[in-house]
Amino acid sequence: MQIEQKIALITGANKGIGLATARELGKTGWTVLLGARNPDLGHTAESELQAEKFDAHFVELDLNNPQTISLAASKVQREFGRLDVLVNNAGIVDGHDGPPSLASIDAVKRVMRTNFLGTVAVTQTMIRESCNSVLGSVRLGFLSEGRQTGSNSDVSFGPPTVYLGPCLEAYNCMFLTGRL
């Protein structure tokens, strides 16, 4: 019996946690699609993982650019036929962000536009494609570098279960109540 290759798209996969996640999935035989907004950095990560003999492929994906999101879904469909797991890892940090009493409203808007709305856009596009039977049954995973002990954000979407960061609390509620 032949085991079907599993395919994961990881946003923000050109460095840090995203690249480490891609490497770990690669070690277990997954095909990893490296979502990154910067083609140079994305191709560098792709070459690095391919040199380690992993099945890795760069996919241009900018959470603030709907065209790249749509093109990424089309590329997954055309080249791989389905998507098994979506790992939403991409996000930004803004130097003008901070505690609510001090954060710049413009910085908060930039962070929310990318980290929340961009993630929603990617997720909706991949789910929509999945529901149209273009891609496989997508499992959702969210990564966050700042896990907070005692947070009520630990929600299982089915294996693999990954931490859903506090910045996506509202999205989590909308998703679980069927409002997306």
Description of the molecule:
The chain has 180 residues and is of the alpha/beta class. The protein has a single domain, classed as Rossmann fold (3-Layer(aba) Sandwich). Helix content is 42%, strand content 14%. The protein has five helices and five strands. Strands 3-2-1-4-5 form a five-stranded parallel sheet, with helices on both faces. Strand 1, helix 1 and strand 2 form a beta-alpha-beta unit. Helix 3 runs parallel beside helix 4. The longest helix has 27 residues. The radius of gyration is 16 Å and the shape is globular. The C terminus is likely disordered.
List keywords for this structure.
180 residues; alpha/beta; Rossmann fold; 5-stranded parallel β-sheet; 5 helices; 42% helix; disordered C terminus
Provide a brief overview of the structure.
This protein is α/β, with parallel strands linked by helices and 180 residues long. Helix content is 42%, strand content 14%.
